[in-house]
Write a structure and sequence with these properties.
Rossmann fold, 4-stranded parallel β-sheet, 19% strand, binds glutamic acid, 30% helix
Length: 356
Amino acid sequence: MKRFASILAAVALILISHIAFGQRPNVYILATGGTIAGTGASSTGTAYSAGQVAIQTLIDAVPQIQEIAQVRGEQVVNIGSQDMSDEVWLRLAERINELVQDPDIDGIVVTHGTDTMEETALFLDLTVNTPKPIVLTGAMRPSTALSADGPLNLFNAVVVAASPYSRDRGVLVAMNAQVHAASQVVKMHTTSVESFVSPNTGPAGTILNGNVTYYSAQARTPLHFDITGLQTLPKVGIIYSHAGISSDIATAMLSSGYQGIIHAGVGNGNIHKNIFPVLKKARAQGILVVRSSRVPTGPTTLENEVDDEAYQFVASQWLNPQKSRVLLMLALTRTHDWQQIQEYFNSISQYTPAGK
Ligand code: GLU
C-alpha cells in the first residue's frame, strides 16, 4: 500500500512538473550496435553489416524525438549482438546503474541488435535496480533499407522511456509499436519486422502517435543481483536436445569449467536416455543442471516426467533456455544451492509450489 502510494506520488510529481513547466523528460540513449546501426549496399536487399552507424547519427536521423524528450547519448560498443559477451553485459549494467542515480535522467534507451536482445533485456532486468524505465530497441532492417523500421522503433522507445507510466515495470523492449516485459519477450522470426512477441502472455502495451498505453499493471521482478565489481560471470552452457542425441556433446561440458548446464529438452524438459547419466554425473561434480525446453511456449514444470528432487535438477518454469542461462549465471554468483536456485526460477515465473 505504502509502495503504491509512493509510486502514485512519483508519477504525479513528474506529470505536474512536465505539464506546469513544459519540461520534456530527459532520456539517455546507450548505443550498442545491431541492425538499427547497420548499413547495406542496396535499399532492397537483405545483405548488410550491423553496427556501422554511431549514436549521434541515429539520434539526428529522428529529429521528432526532440519533441518528446531531451535526448543525449553515448556509444558503449558497436557490435552485432551475436557477439554479445558477459564483459559487455557487465559494463552496460554498471553504466546504467550509474546513470539512474542522476536525478536529471528520467529514462534510458538501449539500442541493440535483435539477435540476443531478449537475453540482454533479462540480464539488465536482474541487475539494474531502479523504478526508472529502461527500454531496449533495435531494428530488423538496416538504416539504408526501404521502410527501415529503426527510426520509428527509436522514436517509440524514447516515448516509452519518457513516460511516467513506464516506471516500476522493470526492463522493457519496444519493437514494432509494441512494448514487452524482459522476462516474456522473445525473437520469434528471423527476418520479419513483426519479430518480437511475448508468446505466453501477449505484449505489455502498445505505442501509437507518440503515446504508450499499457494493457495491465506489471510489477518489477523481485529478483535483483548485485554485479558491482564483477569482471566475469560463471560459465554456463546450453545442451540442445534432439532425437538420437549422443552423450559426447554433453560429456565435453563436464571437463570444460562449466558451473552450470541448461538442458534445452524436448517437450516438458524431457531428457534423452543417452544424456541422463551425464547430467547425473554433472550434479555429482557440483555442476548445476536446469531443465528447460526447446518448445517455444509453455513452462518446464517440476516433477513431471523427471524426478527433479531425486536428481537435484532445477526446472526453468517459464524461462526459455537462453534466458535460463542468464538467470543461472547470476544465481551462481550468489549460491550453488540447487533448491535456492529453484526458488529464483519459481520467483521470476511467479510460481508458488502447492501448499507453500
Ligand atoms: N545480427 C545482428 C544483431 O543482432 C543484426 C540483427 C539485428 O539487429 O536485427 O545485432
